[in-house]
Fold Imidazolonepropionase.
Amino acid sequence: MIRADRLITDCRLATMLEGGEAYGAVEDGAILIRDGDIAWVGARADLPAHEAAQVDRLDGRWVTPGLIDCHTHLVFGGDRSGEFEQRLGGATYEEIARAGGGIVSSVRMTREASEDDLVASALKRLAGLKASGVTTVEIKSGYGLDRDSELKMLRAARRVGAEGGVRVATSYLGLHAVPPEFREDRAAYVDLAVDEILPAAHAEGLVDAVDAYCEPIAFSTDEVGRLFEKAKSLGLPVKLHADQLSNGGGAALAARYGALSADHIEYADEAGIAAMAKAGVVAVLLPGAFLMLREETPPPIQTLRGHGVSMAVATDCNPGTSPVASMLAAMTLACVQFRLTPEEVLAGATRHAAKALGMADRIGTLETGKAADLAVWDINRPAELCYWLGAPLLYGRYRNGQPD
Ligand code: NIG
Ligand code: FE
């Protein structure tokens, strides 16, 4: 006899479990929830003996795992719509960055913002993500680039989780850009990030993973290697913005350090991808940035498939390259621009995204023992999640078994 807090029934399930039906689908399903976790999930016909304090009937709606946005820069000050206009006028992202705009202009605005300001503006963007079925969000620092401002961003990110009702995983992205005050001495900034800011943030419990931007306009593989060594010594997992605008050996570097994920990877080569496969590194694909930068070289999807690399999809929500605050929009873009199948994309927004955050034991599939983080959809087929662009498909969400 299962004593449950809640029975969810009269629904179709996309469990996203591997190896069986497409989408791990169960046509007439049920879920028992106890203490915020899935106590049982399967076909209604197989429901074990149970008592449920509450019964939710979903009139045949589809239930998926709550979506996981595993790569965002949700916390930042101001916006960069002016640079968007410049790019529409012909300027490139690199030109703007080298002229002192780009990430550095968000750094200026983020330093000026209070922690409360940062939380308030991030919560607005979070509302867009939640309306698209998201229950877990990764949030990076990287627009502070001094000790106090990086800590301010990471504290704001933790508060976004607590006040916004989502699970949040934080990443310290100190090596995102060289801040203006270190332009003449980048080595000193790397020292500061590695030896002082990361340990301080970690000591406050603000860091779930360590990220970096490996690119000619950002940081070299040697500089990132120094940071990753430090992360390793602190017992923190790493991930990397790799090979987005050029092939700089980022995918191979991520593999060398057993990273959770290598993200973007438009320009990764086959050797890098083979190394990722061997090391179990997830490829996080970011079609919002690809769209907004009018990129023309998509990530090497066939090579990733061929090597069996897990592919996640995320919004990369940020003020520069991807002002995208809808997970469903990112999913549609991944299908249309990268030719992923809707099933690959939904796995990328659930099971593989959980792996990219090192959280696969808790979230990402509908499975007994995992958190009851669910999204309920007004659709007839799971592929509709990728098919509609901008339609309000979400009926409701559960987080830790609670509707909200
Ligand atoms: O993921 N590539 C580096 N970071 C962001 C862009 C940040 C920005 O332009 O503000 C990205 O695309
Ligand atoms: Fe990013």
The chain has a mean pLDDT of 97.
